From TrEMBL:
Cellular compartment(s): Mitochondrion inner membrane
Keyword Glycosyltransferase: no
GO annotation, biological process: intrinsic apoptotic signaling pathway
Record Pfam families: COA8
Keyword Lipid metabolism found: no
Record lineage: Eukaryota, Metazoa, Chordata, Craniata, Vertebrata
Membrane topology, from the record: Peripheral membrane protein
Family: Belongs to the COA8 family.
Keywords linked to the UniProt accession: Membrane, Mitochondrion, Mitochondrion inner membrane, Transit peptide
Cellular component terms per the entry's GO annotation: mitochondrial inner membrane
Protein name (database record): Apoptogenic protein 1, mitochondrial
Length: 172
């Protein structure tokens, strides 16, 4: 199920990226952004942006920046989660092997490690990926600052367009 954000910068499916993330396509007559179900790799909820017919160049730039940021975020977290699950599986397997245990404790049951043993993995994983997460956070803040800046510019443009006197067409 998708949720309508009632945002004025909404869109119909436009990029191949969105097709990879979610197969859902909002109704064609929708005039809002739609937020999809969580992606199975990144756990992020994709946004399908509505493109209004009279989208200004500034609104287009904002929408494209939001889409690029979403794609960048999607890629980072899909890669990060894949790495996390692989390394976690390797850690569990090696610890169980060191204990002389198999991955299957009993038929239909998977052998696990206790919380203290897993805390060791989590600490090691976070330490090993500290630099990567630091760069991600820095870039995320830069992108969100740019998006916020463009949102302000779009809001001012809309206010200006409402306050500006309409030019009447004259026939000669």
């Amino acid at each position: 199920m998708l949720y309508n954000t009632r945002d004025s910068f909404s869109c119909i499916l436009t990029s191949c990226f969105l097709l990879k993330v979610s197969r859902f396509c909002p109704p064609r007559k929708s005039r809002h952004d739609w937020i999809g179900p969580p992606d199975k790799y990144s756990n992020l909820r994709p946004i399908h942006f509505y493109i209004p017919e009279n989208e200004s160049p500034l609104e287009q730039k904002l929408r494209e920046l939001r889409q690029e940021t979403q794609e960048w975020n999607q890629q980072f977290w899909a890669d990060q989660n894949l790495t996390f699950h692989k390394e976690k599986e390797e850690f569990v397997r090696s610890r169980l092997k060191a204990k002389g245990l198999d991955l299957r404790a009993a038929p239909g049951q998977k052998a696990t490690l206790n919380a203290e043993e897993m805390a060791e993995f989590y600490k090691e994983f976070l330490s090993k990926n500290f630099q990567k997460h630091m760069y991600y956070n820095r870039d995320w803040y830069k992108r969100n600052f740019a998006i916020t800046f463009f949102m302000g510019k779009v809001a001012l443009e809309r206010i200006w367009n409402k306050l500006r006197p309409k030019q009447k067409k004259t026939s000669s």
